[in-house]
Amino acid sequence: MMKGRTLQSMAAMLALGTSLSGGAAAQGAAANPNGAVTFVTTADPTFNPWSPTAFVESNLINELIFPGLTRWDKNLKPAPDLATSWKVSGDGLKWTFQLRKGVKWSDGQDFNADDVAFTFNDIVLKKELGANGGATWRNSVTKVNVVSPSAVEFVLSRPWASLPTYLGYYAGILPKHKFQGVTDPWKFTEFNKQNPVGTGPFKVSQVVSGASVKLVRNDSYWGGKPKLQTVTFKIIPDSNAQLAQLLSGDLDLMSVGNPETVDRIKSNPNLTVDLSTSNIYYFVALNQDDPRMQDVRVRQALLYAIDRPAMIKSVLKGYGQVATGPIAPIQKEYYNASVQQYPYDPQKAKALLAQAGWKPGPDGTLQKDGKPFVISMPTASYQQLVPITLLVQQYWKDIGVVADVKTTDWNSYIQQVIVKRQYQASAAWWSTPADPDVLPYYDSSAANVGNNIPNYKNPKLDALLEAGRKTSTVLSRKIAYNNAQALMAKELPYLYLWYPQSITAFNKRMLGMRGITLPADFQYANEWYVGN
After folding, report:
1. Residue 520 has pLDDT above 90, yes or no
2. pTM reported for the whole predicted model
3. What CATH number does residue 431 fall under?
């Protein structure tokens, strides 16, 4: 559901993890200097990666306009972008980044360290602004100092070994000079909705509200003149309409949200479908503010009651695998499969609930202290959340637990569940950087105000996640995160459902993608091209 920085962003179009080949058979084709491609988004975007209103519709577009200090290489490790190198102090509390020289903003102004300091000090770290993902950064970053015009220093309140990785994850730098005199950056409509200024390979040339956004290449991009002349995003809210345009050749790339359509796409000779395991996990969040959910036996029982393999078969058409925790198998160095498992076992679920004091009432609904086990479970009309929620509702009904499901629109859902925490259970997903550092989603300090949506608090888990942040060696991190995964599998801060395979369809004429992940591929968009 979420983009990882913030739950609002919701999984970056379900595309993290896609291994695009870019029409491998035709990679040798000469680039058309007037090449143009057409993508799709679901609503009018916001051209500001930190805006609280920039969600799935904006993420990938902002990748083309606003690079970060780092980006991801083919192994999903941090690589230079606006920063060319970095080093950390011995105590892990200061990171110094050397910035790329000669970079120009798309309006011709020079990029320098003041822009980086402004982005973080004046936008991201100001709690009152509520920047998208701000809680993750405020959790560890105190301030950003300008060392020189071409160097900045991140000052931390506690070590953060994965800082370079997070700096490559939707952490674009904004131009200080454009925001001079602006009192509310989110109301800067001329920038956020019409004429943004970035340092990326493309810049906005035309916005037609409700219809399209046209980007043209930024000839002054530091990485060289992009090979494509234009990238157009059509605004198409309806997934069926998106599919129709993909099949007709009017779209060149689309993230496939409905696995039932894969065979139809594969039958089109002009299209390619790429599948891969992604760094996304689906879950059911149980609000720990509800005393019933604080009993680990209840959490375990509710997971035993869900037939996840059957759901993967019916909802995902087999494109996924059962999840064991927040660190996905794509992270081969850190994924720990040897943790407590929860195979479908409704009798085990009933036994655990009985141990917790829940007994069947006259109508079969479990009761305790005279109160029936009824769970408020809001969901949103988005992607597959409704069918997932309805299936969970049925599985819980089979063990005597009633899920009161109410469906709302996406924005209302975000406000109710994510912002106000007015829920008792809710199905969603997280998309995170390909790094085992999941502290922003589990740390006790992130409960109620950050990305710790269930408001789960456990000092032992906090300590393990802190230990993982204090070391940069693979072995030491592996020990810390293996122990953390074992604890999370037992305690179930979330009820882990599955790791989906990302499904991306693209026209074979589109070439030059690196085959990393879709967000990471967008960080190398200057290399894309179409053949003559």
Report:
1. no
2. 0.85
3. 3.10.105.10
